[in-house]
Design a protein that fits this description.
9% strand, 506 residues, globular, four-stranded antiparallel beta sheet
Length: 506
Amino acid sequence: MPHSTSPEAPDNVMDEDGYLPDAPSATIEALDAPKEKEFMLQDTAKDNVKLEDLFNDNDDDDEEFSSSGVSGEPPSSSPLQKPPQLAPAAKYSDPEVMLAFYQRLFPFRCLFQWLNHSMKPSNDFGHREFAFTLQNDAYLRYQSFPSSDLLRRDILRLNPSRFEIGPVYTSNPRDRKTLRKSSAFKPKAKELVFDIDLTDYDEIRTCCDKANICRKCWSFVTMAIRVVDRALRVDFGFEHIMWVYSGRRGAHAWISDPRARNMEDQKRKAIAGYLELIKGGAQSGKKVNVKRPLHPHLARSLDILKEHFQTDILEDQDPWAKPDKTERLLQLLPDKTLNDALRKKWDAAPYRSSTSKWADIDAVAKSGASKNLDGKALLEAKQDIVLEYTYPRLDVEVSKKQIHLLKSPFVVHPGTGRVCVPIDTKKVEAFDPLSVPTVTQLLGEIDRWDAEMKKPEQEEGMKRVPDYEKTSLKPFVDYFKTYVASLLKAEQGIKRERVDDDPMEF
């Protein structure tokens, strides 16, 4: 599905899997203004936030997660001391469900450390744009926060149905209207991001279409992650890459290496172009046109994708089982005489499986049906077919500009209720989008855990357990924490090198 928007498109139009238009909106800013004033008043007058509170990021505690299993410990300093009570038949779209999720399960502190690249608050986080979609579909852009606690407090106050992450600006996004020159407010950094959406595969997937997915067509996302992740690491040297499930039918890649974050738009466009291969719409002809010998990236990708082609494409998708689809396959082969022989064979058995038809190509070619057949051209055509049906179909527009906003990890998808969890690339083949927990499932798991642990014989001396550890969200949060710890360690090494190289050091 295309993510780019025309200048005339409404500014609050967004893709349900997380991408938002990049053009600032006067309407949105006007809507945003009263909220900014309210936030500023709360920060100064009402809440009287102390400077030391902004820097209170002790990573040794988990007080960002509430817990009801506490024995002899003070309550959390959360703005909401008591978790909201849910109706027995509450749905994931209900505001009280979202409020309970943000209060009890969302990893605010880890998100802060990921975007801030340090334990100590800095402009990497303070000048970062957040955009909120409220329960009434109002859309607030240019929100910013000095610390994770203030982000958490405002999200609990506004209770958005979802929120997106934008770039780091040269000035605080909340101060943009007070700047004398508009040039003083511009994006300066943003993770390099990539978007994979299964609707871009609708012309070749046979099991589902549109927003629907199943385990069979999820293999397209698995293939894309394997190819793109390998290229980003091997060809560009990026190390800190996190893949996140979009909550329904896709995945997003966030590259947090300093070199990626500070990359200007022209370089982002170049990398997106490097990874783009499939060109042309559903009605176009040959979509893969590459020179030989194959570029090392394409040769490596072909090696990765060949194993998927036999099972995930020929067997599971069976793309040429129907006679009308068979013509598409014949269009991609280079020899007319060979095509005529194959057409005659398949007309006699029109619903022959795709696996059999693929094997027929070599069998008929070896039979001498075409006297002038170019074997090399046939091999290259078959390679191009493999690439057309397996190579990643990226929405490159999402990757080209710093100013794009993308749905935050760990928010809840409004259409499915599933949490946008990170994907462990070491276990990418085992990731099942249909088993990702929903928000109501998670809150139910907390209730069941609490009911079990509150038995009299188990209550004495019980240690507090963060709510997320009571649920199936735990492995995803733990993975996120490990990823962020690795990023912070690398960032500290970079800063230490800068200090060591300082010529002014005595």
